[in-house]
Amino acid sequence: MQIHEFLCNELSVSKQEINNYVSLAPNKYKVYTIPKRTSGKRVIAQPAKRLKDFQRALIKLLEQRLPVHDSAFAYKKHIGIKENARQHQNSSYLLKMDFQNFFYSITPDLFFSILNKQNIYVSSEDSYLLTQILFFNPSKKTGGKLVMSIGAPSSPFISNSIMYFFDKSIYESCLNQGVNYTRYADDLTFSCHKKDILFALPIQVKQLLVEHFDGRITINEGKTVFSSKSHNRHVTGVTITNDNHLSIGRQKKRYISSLIHQFSLNQLANEDISYLQGLLAFACHIEPNFKQRMIDKYSAETINKIITRARGFNEKK
Fold it and tell me: Which of 6, 95, 166, 291 has its CA 20 to 30 A from that of 182?
């Protein structure tokens, strides 16, 4: 792939500067945690600014070579959780599955095995650069195991490209069975109209993971969930109502409404107003008529004040 030459031209640096920088690149990460949506904490490893430049440049090159399957909905422009949920909103039965430690399961060996499947063979020099720039050393020890980082700008595309052959296999199998399939990062969603057809899919998914990844990517058994119209159906944070509409859910609507009420009484701090603005934007994206309902309840002036005050606070920061 002649990565050295590409990076030299893309970043206006010399080959020696590249070699000097990438020698310790897997350790150039700031590690911190954020709360997960449900429970526990997620470890984020954010690369140094200069390393991000290298990663973004490499992705420009790799995007020309590596495909991403259409059933992958995460990390794509103009596509998000709403579009992912839409693929399942008219189905009666739903199956959700999660990968176990997805990003940490993606190692250089796994990445190069996928390149080989794509008939892309790299020199030892290019292999070294790809490994050093794209992968993170959680242990910080010399020679420690390298994995994909949650927080690197390169990780979304790499993770999607890694899954290409798996996505293709499971999509084609599901298509033959009348089942809808999408993957949003480590969340797998299946839906259909026929009762009981989804129960055989977990075994098939596990078999395909062994076939494509030799068991290095596995399922988090505790997060496998079957649901139907008789229960709440949720797809990547979006609720599917019994009349097949997309919703943020009653609980979140009440929470947003309570924050708007506090704002109307001047009881919300500036940072909370900024947070409310994000929630309101998300709600209106999923349910376009939600804003009008809040206007009817609290007045257009109040809703507009939330938007403009939060925007002003962000600009001052």
Answer: 291
Query: How confident is the model at residue 271, as a pLDDT?
Result: 83
Q: What is the number of other CB atoms lying within 10 angstroms of the CB of residue 255?
A: 15
d(CA 290, CA 115): 46
Residue 229, SS3?
coil
Q: Terminus-to-terminus CA distance in the chain, angstroms? A: 42
Per-residue pLDDT, 69:
96
Q: What H or E segment, with its residue span, contains residue 51?
A: helix 49-62
Place of tokens 């979304």: 156
Residues in Cβ contact with 1 at an 8 Å cutoff, skipping those fewer than 6 apart: 61, 65, 120, 122, 126
Where are the strands (E) in 78-157, listed by range? Answer: 93-98
pLDDT at 13: 94
The pTM of this model reads 0.88
Give the residue from 87, 85, 91 showing the smallest Cα distance to 236. 85
| Residue bearing tokens 């925007």 | 311
Of 293, 214, 228, which is closest to residue 88 (Cα–Cα)?
A: 228
Residue 221 has a CB neighbour count (10 Å cut-off) of 11
Closest to 268 measured CA to CA, from 305, 299, 315: 305
103/49 Cα distance (integer angstroms)? 21
- Residues 149, 42 contacting (CB under 8 angstroms): no
Residues in the chain, how many? Answer: 317
| Average confidence (pLDDT) per 10 residues, the chain, 317 residues | 90 94 94 77 91 96 94 91 94 95 94 93 94 93 87 95 97 96 96 93 96 94 90 87 90 94 91 90 93 94 83 43
